[in-house]
Amino acid sequence: MKVDKVLDAKGLACPMPIVKTKQAMNELESGQVLEIHATDKGAKNDLTAWAKSGGHELLEYMEDGDVLKFQIKKG
């Protein structure tokens, strides 16, 4: 999967990963993919719900040690 932008939200606590994700998404065109790296365990539920409510598609979620990685396709 081609990633158009990577957002480093490691070390940020809720709600900052969502705030930063929203800002980064605003810079992308529809169909582009944003990859988010976060360490806040709450980000899994938050970003999944945020993507769905915003009309975006969560393409992939994985854990790499302490880092949660998400790929969200802009709707």
Automatic annotation (TrEMBL):
CDD domains: SirA_YedF_YeeD. It comes from Ectobacillus funiculus. The lineage of its organism: Bacteria, Bacillati, Bacillota, Bacilli, Bacillales. Residues 7-31 form the UPF0033 domain. It comes from the Bacteria. Belongs to the sulfur carrier protein TusA family. This is Sulfurtransferase TusA family protein. Pfam families: TusA (PF01206). InterPro entries: TusA-like (IPR001455), TusA-like_sf (IPR036868). Coiled coil: none annotated.
